[in-house]
Amino acid sequence: MVPGAVETAAWLNDQGIAHRFVTNTSSRPRSAIVAKLTGLGIDVTEEEILTPAVAAVAWLRQRGLERPATFVPEATMAEFADLDPVAPSHADTPDGVGAVVIGDLAEQWNYATLNQALRLLMNDQAPPLLALGMTRYWRAEDGLRLDAGAFVRALEYAADTEAVVLGKPDRSFFSAALEALGVEAAETAMVGDDVRVDVAGAQRSGLRGVLVRTGKFSPGDLFREERPDAVLDSIADLPAWWT
User: Fold this and answer.
1) Is the pLDDT of residue 172 over 90?
2) How many other CB atoms are there within 10 angstroms of residue 128's CB atom?
3) What are the respective helix, strand and coil percentages of the chain, to the nearest 5?
4) What are the phi and psi torsion angles at 84 (to 5°)?
5) Lateral strand order in the sheet of 230-232
6) Which CATH class is domain 186-243?
């Protein structure tokens, strides 16, 4: 837990500053994220959290698609419950699969599972490929680990298709957050630790991008083509920067 994060979250509420917690995580449902943040002392509700899984469900409903093959952890499948999702372990039969959804399966990813997704994409029905974010990697306790974006790119190449991205850095994901907040992009800042996905993605959508020197940040991020609008040591410095 970043020191000062709890106080910053409380400050946002006290000041009445509209905000959302946006994340590309597809390994946990919103209920689990709420439980974790609440346990850390951050007052948050499910409605204040925007995840790619929530955006994917909305996308599928708008198009009347059901039975998505969801390559996500079992807990995250709860977000898709109303759409009769198909788990990776039962995805060998392509009949009636409305889409192939790729998220963070972590250690569950293997060659056989990737082949399951590929075969679904290559069958005669050619269901759409939905990517729950395009984050390339994340920092775990044991070091960097591949994230969903790496597996999506592999499937795009093999199946000669283009994924519908429902997460950062896609413009539609930031637009969904702005719509939920009822604010304009020009008056909104995205604060994150990924200079490409968080900062540059937000900037392309018209938001300001603020980089924090915590999490997956590395000193080399300051010398990349992407240029943050501001760089903070941590989220604890947001109130001083804001004012």
Assistant:
1) no
2) 18
3) 45, 15, 40
4) 55, 60
5) 189-192, 208-212, 230-232
6) alpha beta
